[in-house]
Write a structure and sequence with these properties.
Shape: globular
Helix content: under 10%
Strand content: over 45%
Radius of gyration: 15 Å
Order of helices and strands: EEEEEEEEEEEEEEEEEEEEEEEEEEEEE
Distance between the termini: 36 Å
Largest sheet: 8 strands, parallel
Number of strands: 29
Structural class: mainly beta
Number of helices: 0
Length: 206
C-alpha cells in the first residue's frame, strides 16, 4: 500500500491514523507532509500533542514493514508552555490524554526517510521512528531523515520511559538545543544499535 497526503491542521493529534490499535503493516508513505501549529497557551494548557506520519497515538499496536520516503517531512510548531509534545517520523507517542501510558507497542522493520522537526522554545520529544515510548519495543528499524528539536531528540526515539530499542540504525543528522542522541534522546534500554549520523546538542549529547 502506498499513501500520499498533505495534512495541515491545528489539531493536537495528527497522522494517517490518529489512534491505532491492532496491526499496521506494509504501508509505504510517499510525499507525506504533516504540518501543525499549536497556539493555545494559558494556565489550563496541558494536553498531550502527538504527531506522526503513520500513527499519532498507538494503543497496543504492532507496526511492521512501514516506511516514509525522502520527499516527506513533518514540521510542528508549538507555542505551549504546558503541553507534552511528541513527534515521530512514523509514530507520535503512546501517552493518553490523561497522562497514562498504553504499553506493549511493537515497531519492527520500519524505515523513516522523512525530515522531522519540532520548533518552539519549550522542548518536546522528537524521534526518527517514534517521539515518545513507554514499555515498547522498537527493533530492526532505520532512520535516514534529519531530526531536530528543542527537547529530547533521537535518531530512533526521542525519549523512552522504558522498553527496548534493539538492532536499529540511524544515518540521519540529529540536533537539539537540549538532549540529543544518535539512537535515543534520553531513556530506554538500547541493544545492538549503530549510529552513523552526526549528533549535536547543548546539554546532553550521546
Amino acid at each position: 500500500m502506498s499513501y500520499v497526503s498533505t495534512i495541515k491542521s491545528k489539531r493536537a493529534n495528527l497522522g494517517l491514523f490518529t489512534i491505532g490499535q491492532g496491526c499496521i503493516q506494509n504501508v509505504n508513505m510517499e510525499k507525506v507532509t504533516v504540518i501543525a501549529e499549536w497556539i493555545l497557551d494559558n494556565e489550563n494548557d496541558g494536553p498531550t500533542l502527538r504527531y506522526g506520519s503513520l500513527v499519532a497515538a498507538p494503543l497496543v499496536l504492532y507496526v511492521k514493514n512501514c516506511s516514509t520516503d525522502a520527499d516527506s517531512f513533518i514540521s510542528i510548531i508549538s507555542h505551549s508552555t504546558q503541553a507534552e509534545i511528541a513527534v515521530g517520523g512514523l509514530v507520535g507517542s503512546n501517552i493518553r490524554y490523561d497522562g497514562e501510558f498504553h504499553a506493549n507497542n511493537i515497531i519492527e522493520n520500519c524505515i523513516n526517510r522523512a525530515s522531522v522537526h519540532l520548533a518552539g522554545e519549550y522542548g518536546g520529544n522528537v524521534g526518527g521512528i517514534s517521539g515518545h515510548t513507554n514499555n515498547d519495543i522498537i527493533q530492526e528499524c532505520i532512520n535516514y531523515g534529519t531530526v531536530s528539536g528543542m527537547g529530547s531528540v533521537g535518531g530512533i526515539c526521542g525519549y523512552g520511559e522504558s522498553g527496548y530499542i534493539t538492532k536499529c540504525i540511524n544515518y540521519g543528522a540529529i540536533s537539539s538545543a537540549n538532549s540529543s542522541g544518535g539512537i535515543s534522546g534520553g531513556g530506554g534500554n538500547i541493544f545492538d544499535c549503530i549510529n552513523y549520523g552526526s549528533v549535536t546538542g547543548i546539554q546532553c549529547v550521546g
